[in-house]
Design a protein that fits this description.
8 strands; two-stranded antiparallel ribbon; two-stranded antiparallel sheet; 8 helices; globular
């Protein structure tokens, strides 16, 4: 009984790291294809981060363009992480699928970062904008089912 309590107290038994590794959009453990998550909020643009300014956060490595952005992320990582594990928000809402993204195609809504697929004349941000409330509701539900 003591062992179970220790495992629960340490968080080891119910760690989300394996789920994050399995379900987050990570290539070689790198989140957002190496783009700085804080820059989306501070500069309202996609900015490539630097490997030497990286930080491992719950099984995902984030790159930052400045030391200030890295420090800001450390204070409140959950605020800056992209929704739906960094997968395309439109695809998560329309078909509950994990679809890759173009890091430069994004939208911030109510303090949350949403990323979108944008290749081959298919910018899913445009489709998202046409029905955002409905797609967001569906995407939230799909992500909960997938991730939890």
């Amino acid at each position: 009984m003591t062992f179970i309590f220790i495992m629960l107290a340490s968080g080891t038994l119910f760690s989300q790291e394996p789920l994050r590794k399995k379900h987050f959009n990570l290539k070689d453990g790198i989140a957002i294809q190496g783009y700085d998550p804080v820059a989306y909020f501070k500069q309202n643009k996609a900015e490539k981060g630097k490997k030497e300014l990286s930080l491992l956060y719950q099984a995902a490595t984030y790159y930052f363009s400045t030391i200030e952005n890295k420090e800001e992320f450390k204070k409140n990582a959950a605020k800056y992480e992209p929704e739906y594990g960094g997968w395309c928000a439109y695809a998560m809402g329309s078909s509950a699928e994990k679809v890759s993204i173009d890091p430069a195609t994004f939208k911030i809504v109510n303090g949350k970062l949403y990323l979108f697929y944008n290749k081959f004349f298919n910018n899913t941000l445009k489709d998202w904008n046409k029905d955002e409330p409905n797609l967001k509701t569906k995407a939230d539900a799909s992500w909960i089912k997938l991730f939890h």
